[in-house]
Amino acid sequence: MWRAGSMSAELGVGCALRAVNERVQQAVARRPRDLPAIQPRLVAVSKTKPADMVIEAYGHGQRTFGENYVRALS
């Protein structure tokens, strides 16, 4: 799985989000045409990130964030 963690530190959250979204759209363009045209949703994992980074991602249009730890399921 490709991760943008180090990329966001180097380029900023906005650039990292754009890069990931571009890769997602490229993958969508390659999928077989007989599959349903459902737009994938990018879930940003924010559980270990500082609040200012999460707020910056939100400011750049990211609306879905994940916080779960497997341990918390029990």
From TrEMBL:
This is Pyridoxal phosphate binding protein. Keywords: Pyridoxal phosphate. The keyword Protein biosynthesis does not apply. It comes from the Eukaryota. The keyword Plastid does not apply. One of its GO terms (molecular function) is pyridoxal phosphate binding.
